Amino acid sequence: MPIMDINATAITADAWIENLLVPEDAALKQTIQSAIDADIPPISVSAAQGAMLHLFAKSFGARRILELGTLVGYSTIWLARALPADGKLISLELFERNARLARQNLESAGVADKVDIRVGLAEKSLNILVNDGVEPFDFVFLDADKVSYPLYLERILMLTKPGSLIISDNVIRNGGVVDPENEDPAIRGIREFMDMLSANPNLQSTVVQTVGSKGYDGFAISRVS
């Protein structure tokens, strides 16, 4: 089957899955629309992926969640809705404009009281969390700039504990990660990140490849032991 046909079929299948199992409510739809209106790239997770994150966090009993990459709050809403009444989510976002929209969207979704968005370089925000000695996070969703994934992983491991779950997005890069000669900075960052997962004896990891409305990519799933 030609690749374009595969992509078209995957997008259609995603729409079918989402309509059947994970229909978006008004708050989620408005969150996506807010990005379109602000001319922000449509790089949030899909509804099916958001639901997957929600199910993982809820089944895992996560009480403290760390997210790297808020954008306009779409994945943040899915994750925050998985938290118990006393749960807390800290989300790191580089751009103030994105954070401002995200706060509005979180308010509309009724989860703003559970989320603390911190604006600035993720490395700096992570260092502050480490230096402050915050309570470890049960669940981490990494969806920020791919070049810095290795650095982020180092800090994340300082902020988690045995049993914590780390889900990292965009680790397949349309298959580009299998080419060791690829000079794309994002792919080089992901390859180094994957090598770190493989070499760390305190991480149990796998990757689930994904194809759908967001193209061909994948999630790395790691458990801290």
From TrEMBL:
Q: Write one Gene Ontology MF term.
A: methyltransferase activity
Oxidoreductase listed as a keyword? no
Q: Which Gene3D superfamilies match?
A: Vaccinia Virus protein VP39
User: CDD domains, from UniProt?
Assistant: AdoMet_MTases
Give the range the annotation lists for the signal sequence.
none
| Any Pfam family hit | Methyltransf_3
Spell out the InterPro entries in the cross-references: Cation-dep_OMT (IPR050362), SAM-dependent_MTases_sf (IPR029063), SAM_O-MeTrfase (IPR002935)
Q: EC number(s) for this protein?
A: 2.1.1.-
Which principal EC class is assigned to this enzyme? Answer: transferase
Kindly state a single biological-process term from the GO annotations of this entry: methylation
- Which of UniProt's keywords are assigned here? Methyltransferase, S-adenosyl-L-methionine, Transferase
Q: Which PANTHER family has this protein been placed in?
A: CAFFEOYL-COA O-METHYLTRANSFERASE 3-RELATED, O-METHYLTRANSFERASE-RELATED
Q: State the name under which the record lists this protein.
A: O-methyltransferase
Organism in which the protein naturally occurs: Ponticaulis profundi
Q: Taxonomic lineage per UniProt?
A: Bacteria, Pseudomonadati, Pseudomonadota, Alphaproteobacteria, Hyphomonadales
